[in-house]
């Protein structure tokens, strides 16, 4: 954001801020952007069609060896629904 009353930061100060953001610890079980497999999609779709909550689906994925957070499952459900609607 632009602020007229602050003094301009030096390049080294800016670099330090960027490094601090990059090196900050991540929250939760971030999977590092792993791609979703067909098996994961099948598990999610099957449980979702039965009306099962995303938190339970996330637990079942973990039991099957896939580390996905509840939030990741919710986002994947949304994307799968979007893809399905585009095909129809």
Would you write up a description of this structure?
- The chain is mainly α and 88 residues long.
- It has a domain of 55 residues.
- Helices cover 60% and strands 0% of the residues.
- Helix 2 packs across helix 4.
- It is elongated.
Quick structural overview:
This protein is 60% helix and 0% strand. With 88 residues, the chain is mainly alpha-helical.
How is the secondary structure organized here?
Elements (H helix, E strand, L loop, with lengths): L10 H13 L14 H12 L4 H10 L6 H18 L1
Helix pairs in contact: 2-3, 2-4, 3-4
Which terms summarize this structure?
0% strand; 4 helices; mainly alpha; elongated; 88 residues
Shape: elongated
Straight-line distance between termini: 43 Å
Low-confidence stretches: none
Strand content: under 5%
Q: pLDDT average, as an integer?
A: 80
Determine the structural class based on helices, strands and strand pairing.
mainly alpha
Number of helices: 4
Number of strands: 0
Oligomeric status: single chain
Radius of gyration: 20 Å
Helix content: 55-70%
Order of helices and strands: HHHH
Biggest beta sheet attributes: none
């Amino acid at each position: 954001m632009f602020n007229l009353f602050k003094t301009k930061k030096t390049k080294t100060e800016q670099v330090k801020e960027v490094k601090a953001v990059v090196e900050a610890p991540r929250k939760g079980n971030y999977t590092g952007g792993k791609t979703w497999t067909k098996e994961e999609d099948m598990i999610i779709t099957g449980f979702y069609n039965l009306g099962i909550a995303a938190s339970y689906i996330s637990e079942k994925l973990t039991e099957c060896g896939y580390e996905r957070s509840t939030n990741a499952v919710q986002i994947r459900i949304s994307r799968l629904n979007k893809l399905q609607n585009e095909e129809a």
